[in-house]
Amino acid sequence: EYVCVFVQEKNGTTINHRANGTMDICLIPIIETSAEPTFPLCKTDSSVFLVTVKCKIKKSSESYTVTWNNDATPKGSTEEDDTQIYSAEKVIDCKRTSSSGSTSPDVSCTFTNQCNQTQTQHVMVSVIYVGDKYCVREGDWGDTKASFTAQIKCHKQAGTRKRKCSHTGTWEKEVSECVEKKLYDVLESAKISDIGLGELSLNAAIVFERFKSVTKTSTLPGYANLDTSVTVLTTMNEKLSNSSLMNQTAID
């Protein structure tokens, strides 16, 4: 909500005019996608799968209208921690020349905000057709098509675990990109420190203070946490180098 005050001089008398109103702030979401199963495994050419596609965003005050492409059936939304998950189902057949005309069926979700701005994310369903090479499920990892990389969301952390299936259908070594949630949140704050609310100098000081608090611990092992830490510093360096600051003391 905002209030505008207009000051007018009339015959030596100051007259204040006030106008009240509201201002709409619209958000455009960052969309994460997934499919279950990620790589449908065809046993025969006549097999049919019902694939669940999910589009996940962070919870916010924004009210979105979510639509899917024509051949996907919406299944509503659910909440999980600080996220909102929208789901749809798509029927996948095992014929290489399917009605979709593609060997990798495409499903897309489109979010429309209150300002009629849209954001669309596509999900390619990589079918393992009869005769295709693939890596057989192993532990946490499901059947995966050759030359593709399987991904699993990190448990209670940001980022993903990845494991590639080689072109010969052999599993390669797992690569973890799991990042401590608090450190990931610091990086997100660093990326928007020069836009939105507050001055860059004060926002930067807050980012650095949070960064120091999070990284002064021995519980941040692994390459991904180190890489994210470096990204925080390089992100802030770029923003501060391109700005004329009024409060250098805060940065120091």
From TrEMBL:
Q: Where are the transmembrane segments?
A: none
Top-level taxon: Eukaryota
Which PROSITE patterns did the record assign? Answer: IG_LIKE
InterPro entries in the cross-refs: Adhesion_GPCR, Ig-like_dom
Q: For the Ig-like domain, which residue ranges apply? A: 29-126
The record, for PANTHER family, names:
ADHESION G-PROTEIN COUPLED RECEPTOR F3, IG-LIKE DOMAIN-CONTAINING PROTEIN
Q: What is this protein called?
A: Ig-like domain-containing protein
Give the originating organism.
Xenotaenia resolanae
